[in-house]
Amino acid sequence: MLNPSDFIQEAVEEIRNTVGDEKAIIALSGGVDSSVASVLAGKAIGDNLTAVFVDHGLLREGEAEYVKKTFSERLNFRYIDASDEFLGELEGVTDPEEKRKIIGRVFIEVFERVAEEIGARYLVQGTIAPDWIESEGKIKSHHNVALPHGLVLEIVEPIRELYKDEVREIGLELGLPREMIQRQPFPGPGLAVRIVGEITREKIGICRRANAIVEEEVLESGLHESLWQYFAVLTDTMVTGVKGDVRDFGYLVVIRMVESLDAMTASVPELPWELVKRISKRITSEIPEVTHVALSVSDKPPSTIEFA
Amino acid sequence: MLNPSDFIQEAVEEIRNTVGDEKAIIALSGGVDSSVASVLAGKAIGDNLTAVFVDHGLLREGEAEYVKKTFSERLNFRYIDASDEFLGELEGVTDPEEKRKIIGRVFIEVFERVAEEIGARYLVQGTIAPDWIESEGKIKSHHNVALPHGLVLEIVEPIRELYKDEVREIGLELGLPREMIQRQPFPGPGLAVRIVGEITREKIGICRRANAIVEEEVLESGLHESLWQYFAVLTDTMVTGVKGDVRDFGYLVVIRMVESLDAMTASVPELPWELVKRISKRITSEIPEVTHVALSVSDKPPSTIEFA
User: Fold this and answer.
1) Minimum-distance CB partner of A235 among B138, B235, B240
2) For the complex shown, is ipTM > 0.85?
């Protein structure tokens, strides 16, 4: 059994011992993992930690504002709009592993620049157990990659041994807002993993709106309490539809809502049918580029939680 | 209100008047529409009608055998394996309208050859009302196209004014097996409309197996009585999965089950969740190329019943 205050004390000491009086940066994404890691590291080394929020252009609706509001008074916080850089590098790339790798690489490059500027020696990351267990199984690469040429940043992973429910406990103990702690996990590569095929600004817009509709409806229904994740995937499948009396041709969006304890396995529960239909109707009526909506029904395994 | 025996009498007379002592062929697909049209025309002109069953290589599991068994004693029946020709022409084609057009064209070409051989003058077709109403709305093209160069066949459409439920009534009155009459509609272009993107033999095999699983489970559940159509679509979206402990990458299959009265509108009802999960699990476990299954939830409109 994890004792939150013991864990925090030990983690803080370990970070202090490791980092000493040097500077560190952390990639603060606004998810539970990196938020907890940021606050732990901030507690350990104060303003010697720079919490960098990188806007890769693949954020959810309102994401940047939310993170700014939550952390700008709590941490030495920096917002960096690197969306042009990310989207430029992703142009024409369709392979999901390739996309993850590019995003991971640019991420680290952006850090390197900030790190050089502030004279940092350490990169703190919010890696948790399922991330590296999956990586070692060669299921997905994560962006806790080694640094490229240039400045060498040592990686510090204070919550590497924890599972999600434990991270949430620590977050509450650290005084993070409950609303933030209970937020569904959001992948580091952002909407990139929810856009199948090439990523374009148009597709990001569609995917962002579809995800906002799913989140709104799930929050409204109260189901966010029992669901692990709930989101929309913009596939690269085009489906014939009919709008008014004329033929239409648009995207297939898949909505996915899963229950899970630790992301190692996940299952799709029976969902209120009116909710599913309402989400579907809102998506096709509010997003003209979408003609068809389907509800994912595959568990993990054999599927993964995110599509890519 | 349609009076079945009056309709049959009038239709038979009209076919006789039109065709006279000439020869006719019909594209018998095994669906309710073409079956009813075939039997009507056979009733009208006997062996002067050749019912041609064209295997375009895009049939459901057991389809060819079923049609042979049902019609070879009832009609002047011919089975033609034209799958190489169809699949050759479809190679590399991804646009759904283009696929429909190619299939329609090759269809007519095959007929033309048989028609020349038997000296036919007429092409009987099982077109029903929603087909041409939709075509005129430019939603989908159907393969009741005009003939290409060469032999001119006149098109006869004896059930052109009927809706599906009326076609079924006529079929029963004509003594067709109830099981056949109640079969769900199957599109003329076959599995082509259920394979998004390029059609290959591998993808046909996957799509055929997924459709067989959906049909088996729906029949087993008894839901075929209330559903208009129930099928599986092989999309061109690839999804990350996990088999054993290793990363897997495979197709997204969408299952679609709709209620409808006449195909002009359709809706997805709430379905027994155990059935949906069972279908999903069978598809991912019995078809290794598939990693993810989703249930279509969009009504028509804004979607169409088939995906293409």
Assistant:
1) B235
2) no
